[in-house]
Design a protein that fits this description.
This protein is mainly alpha-helical. Helices cover about 35% and strands about 10% of the residues. The chain has one domain. Pfam families: DUF742.
Length: about 120
């Protein structure tokens, strides 16, 4: 443990990457939200954390949880950064594909019966 009032080297307060913002501007973001970077949007003018996040997302689609883990940022901080990037058009967020609906049990029983008759 560190003495009271002293931080470990390299430790950054959570409000530093977000520029002091504590809550995301969008309430629809969760850990399973898929993030797609807009390659046409210039990265100039972004702060260092947002720039790093964008470079991480540019190769393809990632979930918010993956980005948070890979960048070693708390999920709450990542949500604030992502919300700002979605607002500016740098990122597009998509809800994950919902789980498939359950199959009709009656249909499965009919298929099984037909297979048994073969």
């Amino acid at each position: 443990m560190t003495p009271r009032g002293r931080r470990r080297a390299g430790m950054v307060r959570p409000y530093t990457p977000t520029g002091g913002r504590a809550a995301p501007s969008r309430r629809t973001l969760d850990l399973a939200t898929l993030l797609i970077a807009n390659p046409d949007k210039p990265l100039g003018g972004l702060d260092a954390h947002s720039h790093r996040l964008m470079q991480h997302c540019l190769p393809g689609v990632l979930s918010l949880a993956e980005v948070s883990a890979d960048l070693q940022l708390p999920a709450a901080v990542t949500k604030v950064l992502v919300a700002s990037l979605v607002d500016s058009g740098h990122l597009v967020s998509r809800n994950p594909v919902p789980a498939a609906q359950q199959t009709d049990r009656h249909l499965l029983e009919r298929i099984l019966d037909a297979l048994e008759k073969l």
